[in-house]
Amino acid sequence: MISVERKKVTVAGFMKKKGGRIAMLSVYEYITAVLADRAGVDAVLVGDSLGMTMLGYGTTLPVTMEEMLCHVKAAARAKTSALLIADMPFMSFQVSPEEAVRNAGRMLKEGGAEAVKIEGGSCMAKTVEALAAAKIPVMGHIGLTPQAVHKFGGYKVQGRTAEAAKALVEDARCLESAGCFAVVLEGIPYEVAREITESVSIPTIGIGAGPHCDGQVLVGHDVLGLVEGRTPRFVRRYADLKAAVLEAFTRYVDDVRKGDFPGLEESYGNAQDDKD
Ligand code: KIV
């Protein structure tokens, strides 16, 4: 495949894509960041969903700053043209705006991220202001915010009543005024996502929020078919890597057991014509 040189997506450039069709993927390390970038995404998010997909936790809550930093650094080594956004893990930004600035600063300074994402609506306004004042670009995230799973009593679609929908619109407006450059809308009815998208001048990025957002984000592992169990209805799977990986690993194990691997052509010898 011929790789085409792309213009670097900056925060300002990302904001100009309002009304366009922004494509974002949540991936967690070097090679998937390289491939997502080569596929042309506008932003690579190193999401804290890695707690479940990469680290085997039951929720995103146990994910630590150190775990996030390790993955953000790996993705940053991909030197993507896409904007690189680091997710802030649970309890790294909720305690105080000062702590949020300190931890978000680490994502840029040590991790190599170009922006951070935090979950929460109007209650996060002071934190967003503090991050913006520290020149740390911040993306908001409202609706079915997975870090609030225990508050919600499960992964439930949010904003289904008129009152809850109004609160979400207010949250988005508040995040925009506080200084967010974009906002993720997760797990909300598409009509509510449309209203939010029309109510703010920053891009809205949907996941389970229908087609009227300015952009979409999916978890790379879902797109690739690398997850165990049922996937939510908003996921479109573009590959079945779990089956492909299982088949490849099983054939390898069989070949070793049968004595078919390695062959002499896969072994070194003393002959001078051995090339490597
Ligand atoms: O953690 C994550 O991957 C996310 C996206 C799905 C928005 O927050």
Strand order of the largest sheet: 1-2-3-4-5-6-7-8
- The coarse silhouette is globular
By CATH's scheme, which homologous superfamily applies? Phosphoenolpyruvate-binding domains
Strand percentage = 5-15%
| CATH architectural designation | Alpha-Beta Barrel
| Tally of separate helices | 11
End-to-end distance: 27 Å
Kindly identify the CATH topology. Answer: TIM Barrel
| Rg from alpha-carbon coordinates | 21 Å
The largest sheet, given as strand count, sense and whether it forms a barrel, is: 8 strands, parallel, barrel
- Which percent range fits the helix content? 25-40%
**Structural class, from secondary structure content?**
alpha/beta
Bound molecules: 3-methyl-2-oxobutanoic acid
Order of helices and strands: HEHEHHEHEHEHHEHEEHH
Topology record:
Blueprint: H1 11-16, E1 22-26, H2 30-39, E2 43-46, H3 50-53, H4 65-76, E3 83-87, H5 97-109, E4 115-117, H6 125-133, E5 138-143, H7 149-152, H8 162-178, E6 182-186, H9 190-199, E7 204-207, E8 215-219, H10 220-224, H11 241-258
Parallel strand pairs: 1-2, 1-8, 2-3, 3-4, 4-5, 5-6, 6-7, 7-8
Bound molecules: 3-methyl-2-oxobutanoic acid.
Task: Summarize this structure briefly.
The chain has 276 residues and is of the alpha/beta class. The chain has helices at residues 11-16, 30-39, 50-53, 65-76, 97-109, 125-133, 149-152, 162-178, 190-199, 220-224, 241-258; strands at 22-26, 43-46, 83-87, 115-117, 138-143, 182-186, 204-207, 215-219.
Q: What would your notes on this structure say?
A:
By secondary structure, the chain is an alpha/beta fold. It has a single domain (11-240), classed as TIM Barrel (Alpha-Beta Barrel). It is 39% helix and 13% strand. The protein contains eleven helices and eight strands. The protein has an eight-stranded parallel barrel, surrounded by six helices. Helix 2 (30-39) crosses helix 4, helix 5 packs across helix 6 (125-133) and helix 8 packs parallel to helix 9. The model has no long low-confidence stretch (mean pLDDT 96). The structure holds 3-methyl-2-oxobutanoic acid. 3-methyl-2-oxobutanoic acid (KIV) binds at residues 26, 45, 47-49, 87, 184, 207, 217, 219.
